[in-house]
Design a protein that fits this description.
Length: about 170
């Protein structure tokens, strides 16, 4: 009986250690757009960097999927170039309607998606973090109104045990 109790205590200790280890080493996958504030003019094209990092955790994960949301009344279209190729599993080239308001911002109504995966849990292998995973090309509509608008980032998928933080970019249209 004593041997069983000792074994049970050891198993509880191992299980508790795994839970604590997972909590301690889980991080926050962060995607930000830089610069985070820009001035743009009607019928102008501007570029923003899409930067990826893992904060307070293991820098290597199983990947991430992101949505980039925008206001189609002001922005004609957005596209990605210089997309980090390692593990890229998909990119929607056609904007999707944000009918579910996934970014909780009623001023945005469209989004595009891009996703990367690393099944070994070592993604990204060739990118030093923080690092650029794409260039976001933004085309402002001709005769766009003078307003401030946001481009928001949300996660469509994140690595298990991680959290997500998306940082928006503000555009002042003049």
């Amino acid at each position: 009986m004593k041997k069983f109790t000792t074994s049970l205590k050891f198993m509880v200790f191992v299980f508790a250690s795994m839970l604590i280890w997972g909590t301690v080493y889980a991080g926050t996958q962060s995607v930000s757009l830089t610069p985070d504030s820009s001035v743009a003019f009607s019928n102008e094209a501007i570029s923003l960097q899409v930067r990826y990092d893992v904060i307070d955790g293991n820098k290597k994960t199983t990947g991430i999927g992101i949505r980039i949301h925008y206001n189609s009344a002001v922005i004609d279209n957005i596209s990605l170039s210089d997309v980090y190729g390692e593990g890229m599993v998909g990119q929607h080239y056609s904007p999707q309607k944000d009918t579910e308001n996934l970014d909780k911002d009623t001023s945005t109504d469209m989004y595009i998606i891009v996703a990367w995966a690393g099944i070994t849990g070592q993604w990204p292998v060739f990118l030093s973090l923080p690092g650029s995973v794409a260039t976001l090309n933004v085309n402002i509509k001709d005769n766009a109104p003078n307003i401030e608008t946001k481009i928001n980032v949300t996660a469509s998928s994140i690595a298990a045990g991680n959290e997500f933080k998306g940082n928006s970019a503000k555009l002042l249209i003049q």
